[in-house]
Each structure stands twice: as structure tokens, then as C-alpha cells.
Amino acid sequence: MTERLSGGEMLIRALQDEGVEYVFGYPGGAALHIYDAVFKQQRIEHILVRHEQAATHMADGYARSTGKPGVVLVTSGPGATNAITGLATAFMDSTPIIVISAQVPNEVIGTDAFQETDMVGVSRPVVKHSYMVKSADEIPRIVKEAFYIASSGRPGPIVIDIPKDTTDPNETFDYDYPETVSLRSYSPATRGHGGQIRKAVAALMKAKRPVIYTGGGIVQGEAGDMLTAIARKLGFPVTNTLMGLGGYPGTDRQFLGMLGMHGTFEANMAMHQADLIFAAGARFDDRVTNNPTKFAPDAKVIHVDIDPAAISKIVNADIPIVGPVSEVLTEMARLIDAALDEDPERLDRAAIDAWWQRIDGWRLKHGLDHDQRHRAGTNGAMLPQHVIQAVYRATEGKAYVTSDVGQHQMFAAQYYKFDAPRRWINSGGLGTMGFGLPAAMGVQFAHPHDTVACITGEGSFMMNMQELSTCMQYALPIKVVNLNNQALGMVKQWQDMQYGGRHSHSTYRDALPDFKALAESFGHVAYRVDDLAELDGVMADTFGPKHKDDLVFIDAHIDPDEHVYPMAIKGGSMADMVLEREPGRDDIREDV
Amino acid sequence: MRRLLAILLENEAGALSRVVGLFAQRNYNIETLTVAPTEDSTLSRITLLTYGDADRIEQITKHLNRLIEVVKVVDLTDGDHIEREIMLIKFRAVGEGRAEAKRVSDVFRGQIVDMTADAYTVQLTGPSEKLDAFIAALGDTAILEVVRSGVSGIGRGEKILSL
After folding, report:
1. All domains of chain A in start order, with CATH
2. Across chain A, what does the average pLDDT equal?
3. Which residue of B7, B9, B66, B162 is the best one to mutate when testing the A interface, meaning the one whose CB has the most A CBs within 10 A?
4. Most buried one in A14, A97, A181, B21, CB count within 10 A?
5. Best of B68, B161, B162 to disrupt the A interface by mutation (most A CBs within 10 Å)?
6. ipTM above 0.90, yes or no
């Protein structure tokens, strides 16, 4: 017998039927019928956040670390608009989150009612798709479609806007959750074009200076193993984008590190000198290519992506392949095996060996340790790189690491070596400060027994630090590592390098809180460390059994003058990088 | 490059705004746009005139296809096709000018659909250039009001745009 449920109950039941474990949300007037339905059930745990933006990042962290859509529930008006930054963050990084926003009742829509906002309109540019529920009986179908669209093809965020009257507990309907979705206008590619794949394999076989360049698509598309298998068969160097870290083992010899604006010297040089670039699940972002007209002048480009619009958008693809990376790479691996079985000498091994010699030369000359080997910070201060390396050692490279946005994000990406996908979680596309802590919370909910570290800076952290209260409520044992340089470090770095050292509004003039006391006031454990000699001890306590069940906040006071290098030179090619502090160029500083 | 796109999309609230929003978000240009339901009332058809080089048009097409409610996109300018636009134009017609205006309208196969003692309203259908030419042919005549529909287009021959 089909059950009779109200709109609000159907919504929650549909979420249950989708296997949702957590809903991150915040109640309010228009959402109260839904919240009553939440109250009356046990299967989904609702997490009460302190700000709706944080809810979206929690759902995002949950989604990125599991591959399953994260779910957010907010009220109308400000509840909905507070979710916009999180939607835009998820949109830019193609992660599946579903934001359910309550709306004022249908009969008052358009009258500037209390807490009314046109959520579908406001969110339109930053969603993959959105729905406005017109009547309650649409709810099961809309939820089904929303989950399907969010997580298929190129994933992305979905908004479901639900007017209060459609959740009325006094009106009930037959509940029947659809088993399938039928959308005539949406059919993401399920496999790549066979002819194109054969062409790509033929090009790989002929390459003399190849680079495999992969991005977030490998992580989202569960293609890490296939990528690794192909790279090993071919013996080609691999570089990952900021979003793609962990898609290929970070400690592997064939890994060149991250590429792009703050990528390694060897990765950027290899890209620039390559005769073949095999791009998979990457989108030639401007932070990767630098000036696209000077991009890899000798390279033929193979580009695999699920989204046709990502192909030839910035850099023309000579061999475009539209399809899911996992399927395409599997088929390519099969063809590569067949080709090498037939003739093991098909690859130009001599040329590739010579290529590796050049790459190793670049590595030796300007590896990431180059700078640190020669110096400690100003007056022996702790460098941010030291802190990341200490986190790496203490967690044995196995933690889930979230970050915020800025210098600390780049240091984390450079110095924490990710050997598995979905371990590195950051806002790459939108660059959302305030992402790190709530994202870490979403990850910790999804992986209660794993170590979750949030590497942040004091600027980013203060954008969502109210969530320390939520962490207290749900006893989340996150480890927060605050790289405290008492400034908006990346802004300051640009001002040092491009604005004559004029630090326009990038410091706070001694207006920072005592972070240790702040964290402790929420019942958490906190350390302050500014001495390199104490660092490993603090890390051992933090990540060891002593504080297994505690949120630990490390306020690490680092050299405030450190810059991130390498750094791409604006308007240049990928080979144009500033590699270290150049006297006279970027050391002009005004004392604060 | 002048390009005429035919877009089939779900006839649902909000679908058109996604198409128009896309052009604004990605800095594409809409020269003219017409939209109405098709013989299948679940579908609407847009004819959209835009300008751009081949790369730009490829991106526009791909991004349109990425919209969930867009069912099909065809660049009509890729092949033989027919374009029509309708114009309603009201202009001053007094004294000797009245007869001349009538003659010009006849030459362009325009129909006078309304008149007063001082003005004619002419309906004119054809490719956009013809409508432009008519306005030019009116010369010094004082034009009071012009309403143009924007271009509608359809492929020639057996080719049809369907699901």
C-alpha cells in the first residue's frame, strides 16, 4: 500500500530513499514544515550549522571525500542567499551538492514577502540545474532528478526551491519514489569515440617529450587507478592540477608535482617543452596555462573530458575525446597493451629516457626543497613549508586535508604529498576563503574514524570560525593548523611583487584574537607554536592518540615575509617563473 | 560572423531565462531572439541571431547544450535555410507623401494595416535586409514607430529540427 505523506515528509523520505546520511542546515520560517518532518524521523541526521555558507561547504566536503552528493537545507531569503557562495564554489569545482531552499508560500511569491528572495533567479549562474516546486506531488520526481543530474556527467550543484505551502502537513499525497529518471534533454556521454581513442593512442606511441596532465576530473571520475596504470605502462611523466592532486600518487617517481601558477619548476618546464600533452579531466584553467597564446608551443594536445564545453575552450585540442575519463582511460589502456604486446619497441624509449634526463635536471636545479635547504626564515623564524612537512610526517601522508585559500593553500598543495584521490579538498576554481573548516567538518562526518586536517590561515579561518561551535556540539575531532602570518599573505605577496610593497589593507594592525584562547573557549584543545624545535612535538600530540577525540587547534606563527615560489610571470608562458626572492624586485617592504 | 541558431527547449517556466542568462554570463551577444511553443506544446523553439568567430560559436553551442532544458541546438547558417522577420512600421504620411508612401509599400509588398489622416502603419515581412531597405527607401519620411520581431529561421528541403 502506498503511504500518504505530506510534501515535507515526501521530501525527507525521498532523501532517505537516496541514501542520504546527513543534511547540513539551518531552520527558519518557510522551512518549518520540513523541519518538523526532519524531527519525526531517525534515518537522516541533521547537522545544525552556525551559518548557511558553512552548511554548503560541509556538504561539499562530504561530497568531495565520498563522491556522493552532499545535502543542504536552508530557509528562504537570507538562508538561501547565504548558500550562494557555497553553490558557486561547488559549481566551479564541479562537485555534487543539493541545496534545498524553503520559499515563501506560492500565494505570496512576487509580493516582496518577508524573507522572500527569487532563489532560482539568484542562483541561476552558479548551478548545474535548479527546480522550483509548483505542487507537492512533484517532489519525489524532482528529488530523483536532482540527485541524478548532480552526480552524473560533469557533476555540479542543484537547487530545489520549495514554497512553504507545498510542504503543508495537512495535505497528504501518495508517496511513490521513482526508480528511474527520464530526461530527453540530458544524456551525458557514457563512452568515448572509438576512432578518437585509437588516434590518441597512436599519438602517445609516437611521443618523444610527453606529459600527462590531469585534473579534478580524474578524482571525480574515479579514474585514478586507470591513470596510474597507463602512466606506468608508458613511463611518461605526470603532473596534476590543484584540483587533481591525489589522482596520481604524489610520492611516485613519475610524478612531477603540481603545475601552474605555483607549480613546480619541473612540471611547468616539462609542459612548456612537451611535444605531446595528454590532458584528462582538466580544463586548461588560466592558473595552469598562464598566457594561452604562449602555451606549450610544440605540443600536440589530446584532451579527454566529460564536458564538451571544456574542450578547446582555452587551448585547442588536436585530438578531442568526449567521455567519462574512467571509460576512456580503460579503453586506452587496452589499446596500449595490445600495441606494446605486438611490438614492445613501439614507444621511442630512447627519446623518453632523454626526456627524463632533462626533467631530472630541472628537478635537481629547482626542486621544492631548493629554497629551504639554504635558509630558515627571517631571524630563524618557522617557515610555512616546515609546518606542512611536519603535518605530513605526523599523519604519514594519510590524512584528509582541507585548505582555505591563499599562501597556505599553495604550500599545502606543494608540500603534502597525496597518494590517493579525494584526500585533498580545497576550493580551486572559485577560491573561497572560509571553505576549509566547514569542508573538514563534512569530511569528518563522512569519515568519522579518519584523520582530518584543515590547513588554514588566520584570514580565511576568521571567515567561518563560528563553526567551532558546531564542532563542539558534534564533537568533531578535526585538527586545525593555522598558518598565522598576521596578514593576508597572498595579497601581501602580490603587493610585494607588483605594487612596490605597499600593503594596502592586507594586514590587521594587531587586531587578531588570541586563537589559542578562542579555540579553548569552545572547549577545544589548542597550541601556540612559533619555534621550529617544538613543531614535531606539537604535531605528535595533535595527531597522536592523546587527542584522538579532540578538536585540536594549532596556531602556528610563521615567518610573515615568506612568499610562495615558483610563481608564474604574468602574461608569460609556462616556462616563465619567478623561482625565488629576487633582491630589488620583490623585497621592498613597508614596515607595518 | 553572423550566425542564426535554432534551439529546441522544454516549454517550462524558467527555461528561456537560462538561455538568456547564459548569454549575459558568458559575455555572448544576442542580436535578435524569437521564441514560441512548437506544434508539440511541450517544446519551445528559439531562433537566436548572434555574431562571433567559429570558436565563439562553438562555445555558445556547447554551453547551450549543457543547459538541462535545452533539447537541441542547430546552427541554421551552416546550411541552406530561410529567414524571415516581420516589421510593423508607423510613419507620417501627409499630402503628396501619402501616395509615394503607398507606392514604396507596394514595391516592397508591404501591407497597409492601419491608417489615419496623417499616418500609415505598414506590415512588412521578409529577410532582415529587406526590412532595412524599406526603412532606407522611406527617405525623409518621419518614422513614428518601428516594431521588429527578430529573425525566425527554418532549414530548406527535407531537413527538420526535431527530437
Report:
1. 3-175 (3.40.50.970), 194-365 (3.40.50.1220), 370-578 (3.40.50.970)
2. 95
3. B66
4. A97
5. B68
6. yes
